[in-house]
């Protein structure tokens, strides 16, 4: 390999972009940089993840909505991926007595697509100027020179010289560790008190056991269960509960007792025996919210996706925010002529407030999904919101709609939401007073 | 050295406590554990810090108030240290036109002591069961066994086995790195946009250039300067300002221009030539606020002082909070009979909310000191607070008094402050309406 880029300004030689992390955001980024003509090297610490099996109990489904689709569209990947998704247009609330009530997400045609696993690395490989390097563990890299050292599976070390390092290596990013050693890098990681545990609801007579195309929710205030459809007609049920409550359930009989009390309608659908067994397959998994700033280090490195902003999974925006990172970076590359020394600080300036906003919203929804969804006042407000949106479609747009079905910047969606909240409350209260 | 503690339950052998960090909190902790009869080993990565010189421009003075004094008292160190301090009983506000107005901190006799440097390691050495190990850099330690490896100045490695590891190694704690690798460890580091820069105001005819026994403040909204007296009759002036504004001042003439605009009365006192020169001695220093939770890892390790909670310096509580950590831990050791497996989780439970509260308060004061102190409304409120405290001394206690002159738990002081705020506002408003 000839990566000598001593004369990085020379146009005769392709600049090298090293994408660290071959997951969803890394692979999409590889496509973006490849499309621009860079020499792209993707480094993934695991073995070829396309051959990896889905691990039972750790498969949180991926929700693809507008932002993610726009980002895929730009590199021609939207259609292929959309064809593999299950459209989901409503929540379905399961009450304690077993009744089910749907709450639509948005207007007709506004759907979120559920994906199980994306094999985006495949797409990156269709570019001849892209190379996927699996089983390459990052040992060290220099913020000054862009020199990187990897440990290969065969025990040998490999050195490369990158003009730009793109850290897409997830919530526990190795790239980000170098940022932590710099002065004035703001960072937080917050674990929520809840853990999650996955259970499978098998098909009945070859068909889905419940209505597909819905996000099924059993909101129970301090905890909740959700269920999402898979292509094989199963549902993945995810129980979210404080860790101490998980610790209180230690035997199969206690599992059944617990489900009888809170999710009686789910027992026959999952199956009592499977429930007793699968509940103990894996311990409850932790969920972390990561925020940091800045996203760049000199003109050599930038963080994207979970490495920059791991969010809790309650807004279905984790993957979408990560994909939109690539799109936003790409837009800034256009505006500033691929000049990394200008693009990187601008990316931090533009993107940090938006990613922080979606991290906060996901945390907010963590409370809303398990409690408010239950309350009449919440349902009434949703109803008013949707009604106002119908009569004033450009003035009042529900927050969920802005986040999920538009590219309104996340932080602007939040600002607008606070403003709309005041307007809505004013309308509701004056209507009540006037007896309307 | 014989550190074999395979049978750590044996009462015939002293348990080994390894204190990592030989700074203020580490040294005080060493005294506490030594007093209890443990075999104490203090490890400090630097050379003997008692021989280190004060670095010009990096000497932020230490404010010792009630909590710190109580913690020192418990190990018989209060009197010696108090004798070396300069008492400070008021703020002195310097307005733009040069007038100076004092604002007392509390009641008569309530003073904060200013210290320049504490040689606490000396005190730890008075215990025969304590050993100070300087120039010992921590390489590795095990959360399971308490085995620790250090790199000595001579290049040799040294291994020890500790029953308890106490991480007092400051805001950038090496011990804390191990915590970050554990699941469900919450952590944040936040740099404020301001940096600080220190200047020296020399004595005039062998006497202080301004009134000593005051915290001199030049509040200028987005930035401020403070000055604190030293034993050698100098003042240390500290300029707090956003980093971008520091960057705007690049020449000696610009420094003078800047001071003429904002701190004209300070120019003759510091001296124009010294000002031009010293302003550029060191770049502006960053300030970080660190929060984390839990403070313990299994029954082997606990974090205290800045390693657990670095705070910005605007409440003068950094050292006091760190010293109070030792005192609180000591109290819990009494309650739970030195059983580390019970003491450590209890310490986390009790201390985290208090340390988080003082970190937030210090951040709040960072805004208050440079802006509110200027406003009439703020001064009026302070006046009302002090008045109410005089007529209802047990009901209304100013926040500053609770924090600085009592051991009211920090988080309870904050709670009470919010409650008092409501009461005070109610009294103020009803007085105004009644024309009182």
UniProtKB/TrEMBL annotation, chains A, B:
Recorded topology in the membrane: Multi-pass membrane protein
Source organism: Hucho hucho (huchen)
Primary gene name: KMO
Pathway named in the protein's UniProt entry: Cofactor biosynthesis; NAD(+) biosynthesis; quinolinate from L-kynurenine: step 1/3
Limits of the FAD-binding domain: 17-327
Cofactor: FAD
The protein, known as: Kynurenine 3-monooxygenase
Pfam families: FAD_binding_3
Lipoprotein found in the keyword field: no
Cellular compartment(s): Mitochondrion outer membrane
Keywords: FAD, Flavoprotein, Membrane, Mitochondrion, Mitochondrion outer membrane, Monooxygenase, NADP, Oxidoreductase, Pyridine nucleotide biosynthesis
Enzyme class, broadest EC rank: oxidoreductase
